Amino acid sequence: MKRKAFRPDWYYLSVLLIIFLSVWTFGCAAKGKVNTEPAKPADPVKERKNEFTERYGFFLNDKEKKELQVCPTVECVDTFIEEFWSGNKEKGKPSRDPDPNTPENELKAEIDSRIEDIRNEIFALDGIQFKANGGLRGDLAHVYLFYGRPSYMDRLPEGQTYVEMAVWYYFDSSEQHLFRFLFYEKMGKLQVFKKYMTIMSFEYLLDPLTSPLREISKRMAVTPQELYELWSELLFNDQSGAFRLALMEFSYYTDIKIDDALSAPEAAAVTAERFKSRILGQPDVPEGLEIVPGSRKSYIRGRAEIVKDQKSGNYTFTVMTRVSDVDWEVKKDSEGNSAKDRVEAAMTLRISFQDLETKRKTEFLSGVNIGLPRVVFDRNMNESLPLSFGNIRNQKSGQAGETLGEFLNDLLEPGTYVVDLYLRHNLTKKPLIWTGEITIE
Amino acid sequence: MFLKPILVLLFVLLFSSFARAQDLPPPPDVAGWIMEKNAIDVKISDEITVYIGFELKYQNPTDPQEFVMVIMRSIPAIVVRSQVTNDRSFIQTFVENYANKDEKDLLKILYEERSDPVIYIKWRVKDDPRTGKVVQDGDATVWLETNAGERLTSTGEKVSVEFMTELIVNGEEKNISVGRKYSLKNGSQILKIDRGDLEAIFVKGDKK
What we know:
A: alpha+beta, B: alpha+beta, 3-stranded antiparallel sheet
C-alpha cells in the first residue's frame, strides 16, 4: 500500500490561511471595502450644518430645521445662522437677542458658555458626565443648554431593583419647583424621564401596565410585587424624596409640561412682542392725509376767555388762537376745483369747572370741528382765530347734553371756579391747554 | 433828594427785568454747547409712565462757568407696560429689555419731532472762596413762553414748578399725577396729560 506523503501541521495551517485571506480580500474588494481610490474631500456644506446643529440644534424649531436642511451652499448656511440670531424683519424672522439695547447677543454668549461647561464636564465630580451621555446631543446637554446650572441636583446610584438616576431641580423666584428633571439610565445613557403618573394612586403605582416605576426598573417586565419592592428600596434610599417627587410630577405648576419645557424656546423678540408696551397719546395720522402743521411741534398756542355780556348777563366761552397755530387737514374738492378746497381740524374739547369753596368738579366734554376755505386760510395765516363753542353739546356721560352756553349760564351755581381747558387735535394729539379762574354771579 | 431817581431807577429795573416780547433779548443760543438730557416723566403706577418733556442742561465749552437749562415740552406719551404673569423670570427680562428699547426709540422721536423749547434759564457759577464749594454767581435769567404764546423774561425771578394731580374715580378715588405747571409771574406753561387718556386706562381698564 502506497504511503501518503508526509505534510507537517504548519503546512495545512498555512494553506488554510492563504485560502481564507484570498476569500476575504476578494470579498472586501467586491463590496468596495478595500478602497483603492483616493479619499473624497469632506462636504463643506454638510460640515457647516453639523457644526451648527451640534451646538444649537435644540434651539431650532421644526421650520428652521427644514430650512437649514435644504440650504445648498455654505453662504446659504451662513445667512441662515446670521438670521437665526439677529432676525430678519423683511423675512419675518424674529431676533433671538434678549437685549436689543446692547451690541452683543447675550443669549448666544450664554449658550456658548454652557457648551464650554459641557465640554469641561463641570459635573464630573458629582458623578455625571455629559460625554458618556450623548455629549452635546444628549438629554443632559439638552436641559443644561436650556436652563443652565440646576438649583438642586442629586444622583442615585443603581440599586437592587432600579437603574442609576439623577435629578435636576430648577426653582423660581418664589422658591417653587419650576422644573423637576429626572434622568434615568437606559441603554447605557442617562435619559430624561417623561412617563409621569396621570392618576395619583398606590394601585396605579403598582400596576405593571401603567406604573412609571417600570421605566426605572432593572427588569424588562415587572410584577406588582417587584414594583412594590422597587418602591420600597427607593423609599429607603431616596431620603429627601426628590426622586420620588420627580417621578410623580414635572412641575409645581400644573400648566407646565415637560414637552413644552424641552421644545425649542420662542425667539426673544416674539415673546417680547406678545407683551409689548402700549403707547397712548401719540399722533395717529392715516397714510395719505395732508396736514398743514401748526407753528409748534407739541402744542397749540392759545388761551380761553370767559366773558359776561353786560346787556344780556350771559357768559360766553371763547378760545383764542391763531390760524397758523392749529394743525389743519387739507380736504380737496371732490371735483378737483381747488378754489373749493378746505382745511379742517377735528378736536376734542374738555373743560372742567371746580368750585373753589365746595371743591366739586363739573365737566364738559364735546367733539368740535372747525374749518376754513383754503383760500381764506392761505390769506389769513397770521390772523387770530377766535373759536366760540356756545352751541356745542355736552357728551360727558351722565349729563343731559346741554350746550356750553346753557352749561355756563343755567347749570353752574354762583361761585368762583378754577377752569381747566384741554382742547386736543384728534389726529396730531397736540393740545391747547389753559387754566384760569372765573366768578359766576 | 435821592428818592425820585431811586424810584425811577427801580421802575426802570423792574420794567426792564420783566420785559415783554417786543423788548425781549432772544433766548441764548446753545449750539455747540455740551448737553446733558433727561426726560421729564410722570410715574402714575408701576406699569404706567407718561413722558411730557425734556430737561436739557448745557454748559458753555468756552466758558465752563456758564450754564443754560432748557425745558422742552412734548406731546404727552403714555407708556403702559405689560405685566408678565406667573413667574417666568427669563421672559420678564426679555420683555423689559425690549420695552426699554421701545421707550428709547419713542423718546428719540419725541425729542426730535414732537417737542418745543418753552423755558430757558441761564446762570453762572463760581467757587465760593470761603467754603470752596460751587455757588451761583449772580442772578439767573429766565425766558418762558406761555401756553398762549406770550414770551416773558426775567432776571432774578425764579420759575416756580407745581406738580399737578387729578382725581380719578374707579370704584375708589385715586389722585393721579398728571403733569407740571411752570410759572413766572403771571404767565405759565403747563405740561399735562389729557384726562381722557387717563380715564381710558383707569376707568375703562384699557391697558391692553
